[in-house]
Amino acid sequence: METYRHILLAADFSPHGDCVAERAVDLARRYQSELSVLHVVDNLPIADSVYGPVIPFSEDFTSELIDAGKQRLAAFADKFSIPAERRWLEIGSPKLEIIRIAEANNVDLIVVGSHGRHGFELLLGSTANSILHHAKCDVLAVRLKDD
Ligand code: AMP
Predict the structure, then answer these.
(1) Per-residue pLDDT of the chain (147 residues; tens, 9 = 90+)
(2) CA 113 – ligand 1 centroid, Å
(3) From CA 46, how far away is CA 53, in angstroms rounded?
C-alpha cells in the first residue's frame, strides 16, 4: 500500500486550527511520515487599486508581522511536537506559498482546514479551494463547522 512520506500542515492559527493539526499529527503517526508545518504571513497586495498593485505594509510593519508569526508558529509547533527544522514561515500569498513549498519539499499530502480565518460563508474557504485545485499531491481538507 502507498504511504505518505511527507505531510505538510498549513496553519493559519484560526480557532479551529488545533483540530486540523490533530488530524495531521494522527496521520503522520499512522503512516510514520515526516510532518512539517507552514504558516504564511499574508502580504495582502491590493491588486485592483486605482494606483495599480499596492503592497500596503511598511518594512517595519512587515518585520513586526514576521516576528509575531514566528512566535505563534513556535508555540503552535511546540504544542504538536513538530521539530524546529520542520517549521516554515513564508511571506506572500498563502494559496501560492503552500503549493510552492509543498512542491519544493516533495510533500505528498497537504492538510488544510476547510475554512480558516475568513469565515464560513462559503462551502469551502478560498485558500482551501485553490489548494485543492492546484496541488500536484493529495490534499486533505479537514471539515470544520461553525459551532
Ligand atoms: P481559508 O480557505 O482561507 O478559509 O483557509 C482554509 C485553510 O487554509 C486554513 O484552515 C489553513 O489550513 C490554510 N490557510 C489559510 N491561510 C493560511 C496561512 N496564512 N498560512 C497557512 N495556512 C493557511
Answers:
(1) 679 999 999 999 988 899 999 999 999 999 999 999 999 998 765 556 666 666 655 666 778 889 999 999 999 999 999 999 999 999 999 999 999 999 999 999 999 999 876 666 666 788 999 999 999 999 999 998 776
(2) 7
(3) 6
